Amino acid sequence: MSQLDSHLEENASRHEERLMELLRIASVSADSAHAGDVQRAADWVAALLSEGTQLQVETIPTAGHPLVYAESPAVEGKPVVLIYGHYDVQPPDPLDEWLTPPFEPTVRNGAVYARGATDDKGQMLTHLLSTLAVLEVEGELPLQLKILIEGEEEVGSENLEKYVAENQDKLACDCVVISDSSQFAPGVPAVTYGLRGIAYYEVRLQGPKQDLHSGTFGGGVTNPANTLAKLLAALVDGEGRIQVPGFYDDVAELTEREREEFAGLPFDEAKFKKQLGVDGLTGEAGYSTLERRWARPTCDINGLWSGYQGEGAKTVLPAKAGAKFSFRLVPDQDPAKVTAGLRQLFEPLLPPGIEMELIDFHGAPGVVFPLESPAMEAAATAIEHGFGSRPVFIREGGSIPIVNRFAKELNCEVLLLGWGLDDDNTHSPNEKFNLGDFHRGIRSSAALWQQLSECGIRSAECGAT
Amino acid sequence: MSQLDSHLEENASRHEERLMELLRIASVSADSAHAGDVQRAADWVAALLSEGTQLQVETIPTAGHPLVYAESPAVEGKPVVLIYGHYDVQPPDPLDEWLTPPFEPTVRNGAVYARGATDDKGQMLTHLLSTLAVLEVEGELPLQLKILIEGEEEVGSENLEKYVAENQDKLACDCVVISDSSQFAPGVPAVTYGLRGIAYYEVRLQGPKQDLHSGTFGGGVTNPANTLAKLLAALVDGEGRIQVPGFYDDVAELTEREREEFAGLPFDEAKFKKQLGVDGLTGEAGYSTLERRWARPTCDINGLWSGYQGEGAKTVLPAKAGAKFSFRLVPDQDPAKVTAGLRQLFEPLLPPGIEMELIDFHGAPGVVFPLESPAMEAAATAIEHGFGSRPVFIREGGSIPIVNRFAKELNCEVLLLGWGLDDDNTHSPNEKFNLGDFHRGIRSSAALWQQLSECGIRSAECGAT
Questions:
Q1: In whole angstroms, what is the distance from residue B82 CA to residue A388 CA?
Q2: What are phi and psi of B194, to 5 degrees?
Q3: Residue B204 in contact with partner chain A when CB distance is under 8 A
Q4: A153 has catalytic annotation
Q5: Do A304 and B302 touch (CB under 8 A)?
Q6: Beta strands in A46-122 (DSSP E)
Q7: Locate the Peptidase M20 dimerisation domain: which residues (chains A, B) (predicted)?
Q8: Number of domains chain B contains
Q9: Domain hosting residue A206, numbered range
Q10: pLDDT higher than threshold 50 for residue B465
Q11: What pLDDT score does B400 carry?
């Protein structure tokens, strides 16, 4: 065992304590009531990085939540790597479904349960802790690291995107490393070479100026909840095909190689259904479940509300109805074109007596990186060192909008190294992160700095497709 | 002016104070947290009736909220009249839309604003206060009154229906009088000869056993909110025709006379739209707005919920989705047939991975009484005395399920004498009742006991169609 690996093993409890500290901070970026907690999380990350002897740390204010940035010295002839992560978390609702409180991290069966455990505090910390460990053991890093941790990933990363666009020289790098995704399965680590994009909307319908009695007025007045059902039902047909005009025009189809590789992965559909507690799966006709989750666009309603939601029967004709819904996009779909098509779909469906407000929350296209590259190979070797087995190459259904921004603005490859698991309950109650994977992630990360320093990548060689 | 009318005038303030007292009691029958308030309202009504020298008062426990019953002595050769009303109220949500708190009655522009002001505390009290006034002035009533006030009208009247079915002899009468509806317009009092029925449902869909990340799982798993939109959108077609199989089979069409009379009423559609704050009205094609509201069946979604309803964007694939929705029925539709048809409509639309629970809350058929009858004429004369103008004969879109029960179990006519107004915000925030109409209602009610005592109706002559 190397001196570095021994050091990591000796410091395992200290690393876990650090994770628990950060998980105790309720840094919910979507909820303005938690603004103070979000700031506390930023301060905590900055303080941690300040322990690195060679790191220059700064907290960068934005129009929203701050960025935390740190940089080590340039190393002659060696690549520059940018680590990205986020210290903000999703809202914890519904609270009553958590077995232990979301901001009181609790260890059960080798995993820590807390909001943000896997998304992204736990995964992000692996790179920060590996960096501090290398500095502690070696006194210096084998390449230059730039570390950029934001607090608005769960609300669209608008201020980070602006910052990246305006600071291309400062952030210039050969490769970006992000851990905010999953292994393929327990013991089957993965490098994710593709992500879906997203286009997220809220539609608000206003009917009569106030709630009415559904007996006295029903039949005479347009009901906004009835109209909402019509709009939402029009989004997808019975075959799972999205009905937004032009939606499929720019969809990059799966290659034959990809379809074969996905089909060869050890995916157990019966187990997957059991894990979710469902007796069947549906989606776009003609594609396997993995294809539908990773490489085909979708439409999901994320929230719905109208009228009376309490106990019993209330005969109300509601004044308002609303929904949040989102599309997952694949290359080469453009979120702006989706928005235009959506208006084209909805507007003819609006009856007299209804006013619609369509809010375009945030969008990002999907992205796919080339499977063969020196950085991908370096990552595979580092993960094999940390996890004991070579990773598979997969795609992911989720979106990390900033990945597109990095690829485009910094003209570089992005390595997506997921330490999480599919059953980590990301964005759901009882989110967790396996502590074993936390430590394997730190070990892989420490090895990655060495592998990348030796792989020979240079800016000129990097580029996203 | 008669001695009775003078007495009513002199006691106007006392009558208003009585109304305010009852409105201060938050007797929300649908919410078990208010069970104590509902009991207090029952006690208050019983105490009021106990002031009537000739009234035998009892509070009758049920499996739910109690009934309050009072009876005056039989009068030889004169009819028996049953007064029905309810002391329970709708939930006050959404609370933040009330200008003044729902259970702190406040007078503005001659109207009292409070939950239950018009539905039904204010209207119901007119008959109780007129009865007490007659007893105070005359020492006796010109006919026998039976007074039955319940506390579960807003939750389906199940226990009252049971009580009526089991106590037909005790409640035997020639005619039932109910004030729980509206005038046609301010200054245009109305006798309502028809009511719509109702069939109220809640549908609950369960998809995956918990909320999931819509990126990681979207496209692979059936989304219950998407399915809910499909089910609800299938209820009504683009022409406003309800798609439940067999729904229109038993619908009694409007007569030519009715269509002509409705068309002759002073209904100002432009003003109606302005009052509701909408730029257009929709509903079943081929029928006028009044016809659609009074005499055609409808389907309205009353409540909707799923997933994330908070601020910002949460990328969740929800585990559950639900809705409350109801049909307004007309003679001769049967709620049980609607339930069967609804299952027939929904079941084929359920995709794999979704479980449906369909809750049948309560149902009642619609009802229409004959326009020509001595009791209708007596009511018209009494209202002319109280309001200064002869009433029009109209139908109402709302449901009073117990009306059907009275007509059927007691084999008698039901007089629906509405003192309220269409803009009283029944079931909505800022419910109100005009105090002028409150006093005119008391005056009409006092005259009604006299008119009915002289109209010559007897049990044998009464009967609903």
A1: 85
A2: -150, 145
A3: no
A4: yes
A5: no
A6: 56-60, 67-71, 80-86, 106-108, 111-113
A7: 193-352
A8: 3
A9: 197-251+297-364
A10: no
A11: 76
